[in-house]
Fold this sequence. Notes:
- With 297 residues, the chain is mainly β.
- The protein is built from three helices and ten strands, in the order ααββββββββββα.
- The protein has helices at residues 2-9, 12-17, 285-295, and strands spanning 20-28, 35-39, 61-62, 82-85, 89-96, 109-115, 133-138, 158-161, 169-179, 190-201.
- 43% of the residues are buried.
Amino acid sequence: MITTSLFTLLPLLPLVSAHGWLNSITIESPTSTSSRTYTGNIPNASPTDSPIRQINNVDPVKGTTNEFLSCGQGAEVASQVVEVNAGDSIGFAWVNGDAGPWVHNAGPMQTYMSLCGDNQTCSSFNAASASWFKIQEQGRITAGGDWFMSLMNTGAPANVTIPLNIKPGNYIIRHELIALQIAQVEGGAEFYPACVQVSVIGDGEGAPMEDELVSLPGAYSDTDPGILVDVYSNPDADYVFPGPAVAAFVSENSTASTAANTTSTSSTAPSSCKKRRSVDTIHPRTLSRVMKSLLSQ
């Protein structure tokens, strides 16, 4: 019986480890040498103070009409709201289902923001009613080459810059990875969204236009050319990012970018690579329960 359980477990482990979540964010200011790191909650664990909304499952969100497309599987509001300055850089450290470096390497990374309202903090804001605008999108590093997402396979974070000219206020930042390794069939694309609650400090007046605001779900279709796509058969083809364009007020020198000193085929300019801080190997409860169940058979 133990032998049977172990054989059953073997194909399960790679599948779970290929999934993942946003483990932490690190905020850095161009005017300061110090940084602040905030750790997210392990999926389905008892929540602690964090500005990262906790999900309850490491699986990807599947389907563009899925209710969890906004902030991730079963995402709950977080207890903290952290202050960031316009122009600050935020490093999003994603991990796989075993808390190791991110596994997927093909697909875009996109960043959205939404105002939580003038009289409401983001710790009580329902993301289902958010009006999102895009501040960043990144595809391949070079035409026909690797994707920016692949840089996280070494443990590096995805670095995003808060627009320097953005109007101050309470915002949710939504960072999204779209894994396209099985996107050749409709419904195959895997969405990994995560939401962070912030209060932006600054004196800018930048804001999206009405026609740049979208709902999630709502902004994507399962047949969009950037979602239903074979990224392997024609790697030299231009990638069509799903959703709206980057908001017009986001100037080129204040847009987000992930780590690399090379020419980008996305609408943003790359920055230098930063190493992610080491992550303790902690396994989500969803995985440990499965393992215990299988090994007890």
